[in-house]
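call fold(seq) -> tokens
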Amino acid sequence: MSQNIQLLCASELSSVSRNEDKEFFVNCRLAAIAGAQSTDDERAPVSITAVVDKSGSMRGEKLRLVKVTLEFVINQLKPQDRLGVVSYDHCVKTELQLTNMTPEGKEKAMTCINNIQVGGSTNLSDGLYTGLRQQLQFLKETGGRSTITDATTTTTTTTTTQQPEQQPPAVAPPPATAPCLMDLQLGNLYFAGGGETNQTVLFVKGVNSEEDIGQVIKSVTFKIPDSEDVVLTTAPFEVPKAFAEKVNVAVEMELHNGSKQTFSHTVSFASALNADIVHLNTAAPAAAPQLEVTEPTIIPNATAPMEVELTMDGESTTTPSGGATAADTTQTRTATSVCSVWLFTDGMANAGDTSQNVITKKATELLQGFPISLSTFGYGAGHNEQLLSAIAEVGHGQYYFVDDPQLIGAAMVECLGGLLSVVGQCLKLKLTAPPGSELKKVYSSFETTTQDNETVVSLPDIFSEETRDIMCKVKVTSVPMALPEAMATIVAELTYTDPTTSSSVTVTTKATVERPEVAPENQEVPDIVDEQKNRIVAAEAIEVARAAANSGNFEVARERLKAVSGAVSCSKSAATPYCQKLMEDIQDVEQGMATPQLYAEMGRQQAQQMVNLHSKQRACGTKKGRNLNAQQSALVSQWSSKRR
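ret:
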């Protein structure tokens, strides 16, 4: 199993005197490996719903550029990818249900997009809810899983050697029976809990929610470790069950035709829906073949096949020889779709729900913890950046501020490049302080839960080449004598889903510190730790300055930004490229607050964008292209070339 994400720890101090109680910082970095997906065919499929504002203010160049960019997006998608389109003004219309981007699907999608015409007011909320429901229906019906077939051609060259004169008796081969496969969802729903009370429902159901699998399946037996088997003889095949931890459940299905097949499922609490697609062979069992034995045939001086060991796609196989042959082979893998909703607008929500609290509350309720990212694109100075940023926050996506309509395409293409390079989903970073150490604080803008000396940080996904830094403040207590080996200060365990294979991956590491009799003075702080301390204080300062500017206190806002810029410039890592770019971003925000008019035109949205950029460590359409990976940079470059 490949590991797409590295987990690294760096400590502010390498050594603490054994008789000291000391607090210091430890940085835990999640680093997605560059080139984890070596080809486009190896990536996970994507499922995107575009929610397009067609209110009157989108008339002309704005709507035209959205359409042109969506055409570019469509051309980047593969047949296993899906696209849906929702449009809204005062009314909402589903222009395109989620459709696989085959040549026929692409043609249908472009026809639907080109038929969108501007209308009236802006019912942003109902457009958003409709887009979310489209993705939710897909996830509930399929679990987001797709079976990807990778075709290869293998050429085999074989040689011969002498055989005994007599061949074995000839046996008539049994008649071939083609398998008849039914796709099923096997998995568990996770509701809530912790410890002994992780409430789940185990289930077996059809991929198509309306399919009556009871006509094929006679009974389903759930074999749960340390528990009695549960046998169900009528659909729906569902079992409520509480689990203390992940377990592997064997599921035996008896068909009406008399055959039995057994599958397995690992009960997971990673998300609300945890399901695999399994293939049930519904063909009747083949009758035992009747063997017809004939007299052996003697062939003088004949040769028999020699067994030749071949290595094919990493597996060793044995095949009879007899010359050079070429064969087409296929390999299948189950991949998890990367699901996303894109919301476009240039104005204020003035129909349907208009309250930020109401919209974000309903969006959160709809998402229910399902792995759907939600990104928002705001055009010009007329949109509500706080609303769009809040919507992106609850959907674990990004807010893109597009001050120039000509940059609409670059923002969308950047977002697409990220989705096409997702290498990890549903990330959980568990941080534990072993004996002798205490976890005082975890600095993170992501969802964090803490119990005793253990903290879990939940991150929705990560793109290839991205990093996520979780800064911790730890405290070590004195020890009675100098320690011969370094002591652990934090044990870090990362679990995530690899969407390209739907497999679960776990990575562990730890931070350590030496405990000599006397620690050396003036220990050098690693740049990575100092840089991340600067990032945290800068993001906080930009947020405080933004709030002050929104209240009209521009002088206070600018002074706060100057102070943090001065602090970064005096830090140990000030000369690193990372901190140089950080100071540039702080200066850009300060310049956007030079006058109330400039702040209203672009400074307000820019400040919000910079808060998101540095708190989430993800590219969000900045003109300087901060934090872009290779996939995003290539697509943006390709788009720019197309527009020239």
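The chain is about 25% helix and 35% strand.
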